[in-house]
Design goal:
With about 220 residues, this protein is α+β, with helices and mostly antiparallel strands. The protein has a single domain (about 5-215), classed as Fumarylacetoacetase-like, C-terminal domain (Fumarylacetoacetate hydrolase, domain 2, Alpha-Beta Complex), CATH 3.90.850. The chain contains 5 helices and 17 strands. The strands form 4 sheets. Strands 3, 4, 5, 8, 9, 11, 12 and 15 form an 8-stranded mixed β-sheet that branches. It has a 5-stranded mixed β-sheet with strand order 6-17-16-13-14, with no helix packed on it. A hairpin with a 4-residue loop joins strand 16 (about 195-200) and strand 17 (about 205-215). The radius of gyration is 17 Å and the shape is globular. The relative contact order is 0.23.
Length: about 220
């Protein structure tokens, strides 16, 4: 199983193995907007979930703190998200980029989530330290240097919502990582980029957490 390490604002470092990795989907706080989005995706051939919000189990080894993501073709892309990391020392909040195979997505969202890594930041905040201002935290994403996502955590279901789900399912334990689902992209942008950067920001302190990586195309298949 992979091990993640996070630097905290107080100068300490928390390290945890990843035993369970979960990707939330269709996790906007306004579920009427989510329903409209599901209908739009259906027109593009992406199968609709049976329920919303959705939660997709992902192979734990796909949780990564990396500067490079390999891709088999040019139709993969990331998404700006936050992540909850349950550790033996409490719950951490960090930024994440859910890299997804869009070609595979039309055959099954869960399959596409397992075809590329979830890239997490190397810094984190203790959830309790920002709990009083979660909705004001900012979430941004850049593709090849272009800002394509810009919002706040108020647009997404709350960390507490997902912690309650984990408790109900017996999954509230150290080693569990849950990634939030994403905010809307700027209409008309080209998301099939070679470089991705995502940022979680705290306007109250000016502190930010980022994750950035380049996409490396794998060699062509022989056979």
């Amino acid at each position: 199983m992979p091990t993640l390490s996070f630097d905290l604002p107080d100068g300490t470092t928390v390290t945890t193995p990843v035993t369970t990795l979960l990707n939330a989907g269709y996790a906007g706080r306004d579920q009427a907007d989510v329903a409209a989005h599901v209908a739009e995706l259906a027109e593009l051939g992406v199968p609709a979930p049976k329920v919303t919000p959705a939660l997709y189990p992902v192979a734990p080894y796909l949780a990564a703190q990396t500067d490079e993501v390999p891709a088999q073709h040019g139709r993969t892309s990331g998404e700006a998200e936050w992540a909850l990391v349950i550790t033996a020392e409490g719950v951490l909040l960090t930024v994440a980029c859910d890299h997804t195979d869009r070609e595979l997505e039309v055959h099954g969202v869960a399959w596409s989530k397992n075809a590329a890594p979830d890239v997490l930041g190397r810094k984190a905040w203790r959830l309790d330290d920002v709990a009083d201002r979660l909705d004001s935290l900012t979430l941004r994403g850049w593709a090849d240097g272009q800002l394509i996502q810009d919002g706040t955590l108020a647009e997404l279901l709350t960390p507490q919502h997902w912690l309650d789900v984990l408790r109900e399912r017996g999954l509230y334990e150290p080693g569990v990582v849950l990634i939030s689902g994403t905010i809307p992209m700027v209409p008309g942008v080209n998301q099939f980029a070679g470089e991705w950067r995502v940022e979680l920001g705290d306007p109250a302190t000016g502190n930010t957490i980022e994750a950035a990586y380049r996409v490396r195309r794998l060699p062509e298949v022989i056979g």
